[in-house]
UniProtKB/TrEMBL annotation:
Species assigned in the record: Catenulispora subtropica
GO molecular function (one): helicase activity
CDD domains: SF2_C
Signal peptide: none
Keywords of this entry: ATP-binding, Helicase, Hydrolase, Nucleotide-binding
Pfam families per the UniProt record, alphabetical: ResIII (PF04851)
The keyword Nucleotide-binding is assigned to this record: yes
InterPro entries in UniProt: Helicase/UvrB_N, Helicase_ATP-bd, Helicase_Restrict-Modif_Enz, P-loop_NTPase
Superkingdom of the source species: Bacteria
Protein name, per record: DEAD/DEAH box helicase
Domain Helicase ATP-binding: 35-194
Source taxonomy: Bacteria, Bacillati, Actinomycetota, Actinomycetes, Catenulisporales
Amino acid sequence: MSISAASHLSPAYPERAVRGTASRLRAWQQAALDEYMTREPRDFLAVATPGAGKTTFALRIATELLDRHVVNTITIVAPTEHLKTQWAEAAHRVGIRIDPNYSGASGGTSRDYQGIAVTYAGVAAHPMLHRRRVEGRRTLVILDEIHHAGDSKSWGEAAYEAFEPAARRLALTGTPFRSDTNPIPFVSYAPDREGVRRSVADYTYGYGSALSDGVVRPVVFLSYAGRMRWRTKAGDEIAMQLNEPMTQDAVKQAWRTALDPAGDWMPQVLRAADRRLREVRRAIPDAGGLVIATDQGAARAYADILKDITGQRPTVVVSDDPTASARITEFSGNDDRWMVAVRMVSEGVDVPRLAVGVYATGISTPLFFAQAVGRFVRARRHGETASVFLPSIPNLLQFANELEKERDHSLDKPTQATTTEDVWGEEEALLAEANRTQKEQGYDEDLFTFQALNSEAEFDRVLYDGAEFGLPADPGSREEAEYLGLPGLLEPEHIKMLLAKRQQMHLTSARKKALLRSQAEAIVGAEERPVMTRKQLLELRKELQGLVGAWHHKTGKPHGTIHGELRRTCGGPAVAQATATQLQKRIDMVRRWAAEGGYS
């Protein structure tokens, strides 16, 4: 073990740092180290964005404390088995021998080791065992992604019981803190101006600062909407646009319809994402893509779709596969195009070549979203950009627009009632599920029992640096291609300028199409667009409304669903803006349904 070795560890370990971002330690790592060594606190909380180099920072402190005999052993607590091994490998590089296979059953480890690496779950299983270890030795405890200690009351209590006697505790996190009020052990809280107790970090290095320093990649979000149609538990058929205002339950069901592998939305979005990946690989040949799925069935179905698109079978990673960690490591080191995972690659796992992501999960907590996006921000050289595809869901769009916003953990709930706008009031059970690595389950069938009927994707917009660009466009269109074809290497200051240019081209194209449409309508023959008086147009609308009402009474389907199906089948705008020809087509269609027994 040597301070010199720790000084020369890549500040971006396990990868090499972006050229020009650091010589030995990055500026934030040196500043945080100086703060720590000046104060020498028993507890220290460092909040740094994913990809900033928390591992290197922590191991540098460990070598300093070991060299000065402030501590004589190390305990590293990580969220997952994979991260235990990753920490042990990093420590080995600086001469600290860590046993990643220590277990409570064995009760001890070889004298050749200077410490152990365990999981939060392992600590919860044997808290007193770990307490006896730290009581008998001057121990530095490194708590990686400390918010996991608040995953459940028992986990937090176990961590406190086990490590309360420790000589030093270094807590690390790279994502916004939890949205529940479970206290996190060894974290200090102080009231804000409203009297809400919030976590206090000893050093913070956020995404915005890291982006300015060139330490992380800028993230471009490509949002997709589209028409969704599903059948509820009550038997009602509902058709809605993914990005139109709707109730919270309808949002969840429309979202689930979009993610259904049997629909057209996911294949269309995956095809767009692969097109974006091909563009990125022009400049970054080993760039990879990651699809984050909700459950194992969906993951394997998405993998089949990607195989059809690319001709190559993606790597599939699920948590109950004993080879999961090996698969991640293998994918990290090769140049395969795609990996599909179920939450497994949501936090702490380093695959820096990931440059394109598809957020294809129904999890909508801000913590999980930040963890997922964190998989794509690890820069290896200047000019790399990350692209994340996501459904046009209000919560997700808000998270994307607020990527640079820093938040602290709150111990107190706001006094006002939670509303649909309160996206930080997500269900605690869902948050806990998102943070743990366990056997994946699907959606709660009791809550969201329905049948997805069909779905179609539509390019909606691009979100970058709090701004939005683009207009709706069909998949495969030239307008969509303008955004998918952004260069793979692009400096942050040029991205917004190029997006604005693409948007102007898009607007110009839309105006030309509108003009051509109006000119075409102007020359339609009298037999196609008969001259109608206002009274005659009102009569057609009245006739259509009467037929829709009759069909509603016959089938029980809501009026809005019937009108939506008519628009989908016959084309054209809402009834109030429809022409006489369009209204007549819908009248004829309802009559055909009545004669043929309905639509499918």
